[in-house]
């Protein structure tokens, strides 16, 4: 039985940013099965158009909108067009986010005799740090500024952000992404409090380690054996496996749906096989 049978969002307008990406495209396809009208927003319009077509061909309702989450004019244009196509936003999922190689060190630990060629903390590029902070933090704040205006006072209004394991304890090599996701967890709590009197709940999920086509080559070698970094992840995940995208959707639907979570506000739900609970000892 599909989980979506337990949730009824008929005629609700669900806006999803980053919907051309691996996780949010999957969320969009599942959420459409609940009867919602799904607006797929992404800077990469081809990706979202393909997913919207797929959803419509399956008999559900979706539309693609080319939108830059860092540009208020672009977000406002999407808001206006979605209002014409579907009505005002009920639920916002802030999915656009990610890291940059320019904000990633080569080394986990600094040492006195590192070769000059090592990209260490000292050679991280300022523009790479800005890119990551902007995409994750501002890319969540600005869509919320735009779409929450339409959600106030509406029954069942809800915002879902996407945090990460590195918000709890930073992962090595990716200081900007870790800091930006910590900011997302913090901002989720801030929004929950701020909007608590106007009927908008705000929560987040913090996915653990998933295998996707983007990171598969970092996690597995050509013979499908885990790389050293993958071994470390598995060692620190008590359930001793990676997660799958379909293991996140239950948390998303639960937090979206006031029938299940009407008094849950300001939580960051880890979906991580126990990673964040484990000290490693
Ligand atoms: P992804 O890279 O597959 O998708 C991100 C999407 O965001 C892409 O389609 C991209 O075009 C879009 N995007 C980038 N910049 C944009 C902009 N300025 N405006 C609009 N859209 C823009 O990412 P994913 O793996 O599906 O991750 C989705 C979210 O989940 C992200 O916030 C990510 O940080 C978070 N997350 C992912 C994982 C994971 O293992 N994949 C784990 C924890 C958290």
Automatic annotation (TrEMBL):
Pfam families assigned to the protein according to its UniProt record, in alphabetical order: adh_short
Origin superkingdom: Bacteria
GO biological process, one term: carbohydrate metabolic process
SUPFAM superfamilies (alphabetical): NAD(P)-binding Rossmann-fold domains
Keywords: Oxidoreductase
Record-level Gene Ontology MF annotations: oxidoreductase activity, acting on the CH-OH group of donors, NAD or NADP as acceptor
Similarity comment text for this entry: Belongs to the short-chain dehydrogenases/reductases (SDR) family.
Descriptive protein name: NAD(P)-dependent dehydrogenase (Short-subunit alcohol dehydrogenase family)
Organism for this UniProt entry: Nicoletella semolina
């Amino acid at each position: 039985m599909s989980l979506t049978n337990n949730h009824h969002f008929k005629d609700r307008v669900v806006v999803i940013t980053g919907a051309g990406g691996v996780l949010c495209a999957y969320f969009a396809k599942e959420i459409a099965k609940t009867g919602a009208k799904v607006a797929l927003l992404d800077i990469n319009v081809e990706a979202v158009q393909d997913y919207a077509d797929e959803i419509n061909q399956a008999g559900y309702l979706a539309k693609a909108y080319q939108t830059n989450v860092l540009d208020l004019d672009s977000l406002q244009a999407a808001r206006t067009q979605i209002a014409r196509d579907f009505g005002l936003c009920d639920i916002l999922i802030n999915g656009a986010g990610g890291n940059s190689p320019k904000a990633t060190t080569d080394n986990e630990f600094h040492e006195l005799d590192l070769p000059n060629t090592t990209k260490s903390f000292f050679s991280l590029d300022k523009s790479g740090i800005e890119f990551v902070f902007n995409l994750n933090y501002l890319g969540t704040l600005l869509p919320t500024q735009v779409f929450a205006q339409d959600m106030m006072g509406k029954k069942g209004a809800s915002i879902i952000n996407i945090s990460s394991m590195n918000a709890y304890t930073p992962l090595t090599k990716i200081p900007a992404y870790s800091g930006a996701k910590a900011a997302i967890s913090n901002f989720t709590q801030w929004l929950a409090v701020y909007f608590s009197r106007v009927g908008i709940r705000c929560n987040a999920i913090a996915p653990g380690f998933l295998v996707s086509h983007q990171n598969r080559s970092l996690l597995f070698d050509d013979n499908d054996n885990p790389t050293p970094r993958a071994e470390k992840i598995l060692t620190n995940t008590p359930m001793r496996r990676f997660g799958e995208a379909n293991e996140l959707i239950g948390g998303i639907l639960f937090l979206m749906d006031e029938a299940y979570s009407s008094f849950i506000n300001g939580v960051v739900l880890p979906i991580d096989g126990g990673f964040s609970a484990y000290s490693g000892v």
